[in-house]
Amino acid sequence: MKHLTKRRLAFVVAAAMGIAGCGSDGKDGEDGAPGEPGEPGVPETPVTEVSEITNVEYIAHMVEEGQVTVEFNITDEDGTAITGLENAAIYLAAMTDSGIQRSRDGTVGGNATFGGDTPTEGATITEVDDGQYTLVAPMAAVQADTEGLIRLQVGNDEGIAASPYIIINKPENTHTSTTETCYSCHVDYATSDIKHSKYVALNTEGEVDFVGGCMVCHNNVPRDIAEDGTSLDTGGYAKNSMQKLGHINHQKFEKDFTPTNCYTCHAEPVVNTSIAGNGCSDCHGDGQSGVIVPAEGFDARAFHAEATSIGLVEREEIRANHYTTTSNPYFNPTMDEWIDHKDVAWTSGYCVDIALFDNSGDTPVQLNIGEMYAAHEVTYGGAYINNYHNDSIVARVISHGAEGYIENADGSRSVCYGELTDGFEDANLSASSRITIADTNWEDSDGEFGVSFTGYSEVVDPINFEKVQDWGRRHAVTEDSCTTCHNNDTNYHKNGGYRDGGLDCVACHNNGQDRRAAYSAPGFGPMVHSMHWGIGNALSGAKTDEDGNNVENSAASLNADNCVSCHADGVSLADVPNQYMLSKAFNGGVSGVMTSPITANCFACHDSDSALSHMEQNGGEFNVPTTDKWFTEGTAESCATCHDTGKSFGIDKFHNFER
Q1: Closest CA relative to residue 396, chosen from 312, 299, 329, 297
Q2: CB distance 86 to 157 below 8 Å
Q3: DSSP state of 294
């Protein structure tokens, strides 16, 4: 469809009148005298003086001696130009020989405010056109050649909403950690209720610049401290420098995190490579002695990762150069007499064969588990036989401590049990195995150290031990879900590591291993939810106060709504197997109860009486008595009907599954 301007429309109307009427001289067929041309029309551009959202379009800035000038446009949530702006603030953290720095007394860098309760003398703001402004900000310490990290914010009065903080300039090599590396744990920090979330800044393209925004206040240079311990207004802006936040404060993360795995945060080689400089001196004393002058191309990340005292490279090499195999469970009716760990003698057994291989060469070489165990090179090598039903482990069909080890001539180990426990004859069988290789930093502490390999066998029937299916389990987390935070490549406990999204943990924490799990929650998913963000967060015992009482672990500092931290591919409630899980962890450690699966997962965090009532009203079952064949029975919960992803009240409406 054609769109005619007012001027064009007037011309068309006039032409039509000329055709229909007579000329001005009264003679038919001749044109009349031309009239006086009218004034061209000027369309009015809509403007507003209020906004619920204030968008900033950066145009340009200039750093001069004693002042910073910025040009920008602002519009509201509908794209309408905003007029009458009376509030704006600008901050400049200067690039110095010590890195980014902004002192509170204005001797390095500076800040200025137009409007507000404490306006800066000499600051001006001029509206050069509808919605277009020029802000002139006096900063005494700024020179024409000052390079700096500059942050702008406008609005924040009764009519015009505060805009996001905008980083309008950032020198090269300001930092080598990135928004992506920080957001792998601190997902979408701005949407959380965590301290300083409102200060998360955007760049001029509208993308989050998380680290740049932080560094405007948390500079490379910390705020000076007087002899009596009081804070001064010199040095940097904050007592916590950016590198202290990264290197020191993150050490409060109490479980299997090492700040010396520099690759976790530093996406690029670090800028400072002198032990006397910022960052290094945080951990290496005052940096006045033993100054390192690195060779060209020195990468401090590799230097730390390869340190034998840290052991990251050694553990990675052990993992890369070895693999294990796990046989299907089988019954051997005629065996030489063997003694189990309870000193009972047997001449038959239900067995699983485990083997360890070195694949560092062209051809894998089978290693001798028994010899390595005797030499303390292997610190654990065992296997369990489990009942398996509906793609889930539903019971451990052997008694703890009832196993015996038989070392075979080829170097493999047979892990055997004299008998299987009763009650699960209708379920199939599978095996889980675990072998741990000691590294240089191994410690004897509940299997928390070393490099562990967990394996699962195929599934066989319990009579003829013939294959029924491959082993599998719904596992709705990503491979690096756990190792992003737990980054030192050791184990949580019991020789269970963090690789493959905690798939090792499922060998013990599953629907049928009725574990207390510190009374947090049953199974795997509910336990992880609770240990991070539910009541289990304090029950883990990882942190205690001076009186020995448990306190919240460091996961409480993360935003629980951001499920994408682990569930990067989303969650489908409809795909959750309709199968109970044993739930004495919800029942004060008293067994004999079971809970429907979605209810168990949700209640791990949403544990109020009203939340539980809602679940039960929609078919959820909580700590109901178990039956003999509980693992074959379907549950009545209908959570997915309303709360599956994509539904009107889908889980994705309340939790974030996108980065």
Answers
A1: 329
A2: yes
A3: P
DSSP label of 456: E
DSSP E strands in 23-173: the ranges are 47-48, 55-64, 67-75, 81-82, 88-96, 99-101, 110-114, 124-129, 132-138, 148-154, 165-169
Cβ atoms within 10 Å, residue 205: 7
Say which amino acid occupies 2.
Answer: K
Say if pTM beats, i.e. exceeds, 0.90: no
* CA 257 vs CA 253, 374, 490, 563, 643: distances in Å: 7, 31, 9, 20, 35
Per-residue pLDDT of 191-221, as tens digits, reads 887 889 899 999 999 999 999 999 999 999 9
For 405, the token pair is 């080890």
Contacts 24+ apart (CB under 8 A), 234-241: 234/103, 234/104, 234/105, 234/107, 235/101, 235/103, 236/101, 236/102, 236/103, 237/93, 237/102, 237/103, 237/104, 241/278, 241/282
Q: Using the CB atoms, write b or e for 606-621: b if 16+ within 10 Å.
A: eeeeeebeebbebebb
Q: Tens digit of pLDDT for each residue in 574-632?
A: 999 999 999 999 999 999 999 999 999 999 999 999 999 999 999 999 999 999 899 99
What is the tens place of the pLDDT at every residue in 53-105?
999 999 999 999 999 999 999 999 999 999 999 999 999 999 998 899 999 99
| Distance of alpha carbon 476 from alpha carbon 492, whole angstroms | 20
| 133-163 pLDDT tens trace | 999 999 999 999 999 999 999 998 779 999 9
Q: What is the dihedral of CA 46, 49, 52, 57, to 10 degrees?
A: 70
DSSP per-residue codes, 600-625: HHHHTT--SHHHHHHHHHTT---SEE
Which one-letter DSSP state was computed for residue 314? H
Backbone φ and ψ for 569, nearest 5 degrees, come out as -105, 15
In this structure, is the dihedral angle defined by the CA atoms of residues 487, 493, 495 and 497, taken in order, positive or negative? negative
The DSSP 8-state label assigned to residue 641 in this structure reads H
Residue 501: how many CA atoms within 13 Å on its side-chain side?
16
Helix and strand tally (H, E) in the chain? Answer: 14, 33
Helix, strand or coil, per DSSP, at residue 31: coil
Cα 539 from chain centre: 22
The CB density around residue 630, as the number of other CB atoms within 10 Å, is 18
567 closest CA partner among 649, 487, 474: 474
Strands 165-169, 201-203: pairing kind: parallel
207 C-beta neighbours (distance < 10 Å), count: 10
How far apart are the C-alpha atoms of 641 and 643, rounded to whole Å?
6
Query: Cβ distance 494 to 446 under 8 Å?
Result: yes
